[in-house]
Amino acid sequence: MLACAKGIAFPDGFLFGTSTSAHQTEGGNTTSDWWQLEHRTGRIPEPSGDAADSYHRWPVDMDLLAELGFTDYRFGIEWARIEPEPGHFSRAALAHYRRMVDGALERGLRPMVTLHHFTLPRWFAERGGWRAPDAVERFARYVAATAPVITDGVRHVCTINEPNTVAALHTLTAADPPSAPGLPLPDPELTAVLIAAHRAAAAAVRAVSPRIQVGWSVANQCYQAVPGAEEVTAAYRHPREDVFLEAARADDWVGVQAYTRTRIGPRGPLPVREGAELTLTGREFYPEALGEAVRHTAEVVGDVPVIVTGNGLATRDDSRRISYTHQALRDLAAALADGLDIRGYLHRSALDGYEWGSYRPTFGLITVDPQSFLRVPKPSARWLGRIARSGFLPAP
């Protein structure tokens, strides 16, 4: 880490890219539980539909990311597509995702592959989902089947995205989106199942290739205690976050996903302070969350390297996205300068996509026209791409 009056240089080999998830961008994920939730329950105001049609247009997405200067791309693969019926593994789906890995490598993008990002095969959900007695074994079997996708050229695999969100919101609704602050208390039994599933998946990945580095990404809510509420905050945080970080102590890396803060008073979460700038998801504009989350994660996991796998802003004002990200990166650089082992920063999201019930919150660095699917990079994409290409964060 080199700092000077002109800016800050990130370490050689630092992962610098963007993130997407499969269901939010691919479109047409018809064999998933979320598709059924969107179309058959009446609880979701806006279905995903074609999303950004990235299932077919991923080469365009990767071309843009490479041209913009990014060196890394985190994307998900869909269990529901790979195993649409129990025990039936689609060779076509596996070949599709392998083409994505090869396509990333051909463009100079290092792929990070996420194996599970909220959605499940419909058949798995109908059997009880994570509550089924053989859920861990079924998940590990799926992970082993992804060998053709991840064996060659994939250095980092994320087993489960935000398991603490999954445990807290195992029955997702439009009123409680997956990454909402102030998460309810996770179900303890489901927490234990997800930790077991992660460990089984990590073992399955390492059996595929010992060269792959395995971890999972935790939703960091950046809990802050008001004076006098320190014990309440610690008790509130542990089952919602720290237990999942503690489970990562045997991993090759742990993912940090931070967007805002959650202030805790004597009786629990407090509302966003009056007059605060809000994002399109109703959260406080608080870029300092990333630095605080990274430091807290490092305290819990010890020597495990940290990768920022999700950080960004839902806004229509792209200048605020740049301001937010610049401050977040400065705080990240300060943590690096203090000796924290931070290996990368993956911005969420590469594209404007489906935000679990609505297309209104726009997290993307790239705009996607909902009719033509034309991709147009925003100024923030070009700004962040220059930083990724140079490895240098200019002074404000």
What does this structure look like?
Its EC number is 3.2.1.21. With 396 residues, the protein is α/β, with parallel strands linked by helices. The chain has one domain: Alpha-Beta Barrel (TIM Barrel), CATH 3.20.20.80. The chain contains 14 helices and 16 strands. An eight-stranded parallel beta barrel has the order 3-4-5-6-7-9-12-13, surrounded by six helices. A three-stranded antiparallel β-sheet has the order 1-2-16. Strands 8-10-11 form a three-stranded mixed β-sheet, with helices on one face. The two termini are 18 Å apart.
Can you describe this structure in just a few lines?
Belongs to the glycosyl hydrolase 1 family. Keywords: Glycosidase, Hydrolase. This protein has 396 residues and is α/β, with parallel strands linked by helices.
Features:
single chain; 396 residues; alpha/beta; TIM Barrel; eight-stranded parallel beta barrel; three-stranded antiparallel β-sheet; 14 helices; 16 strands; 40% helix; globular; glycosidase; GH_1_N_CS; hydrolase
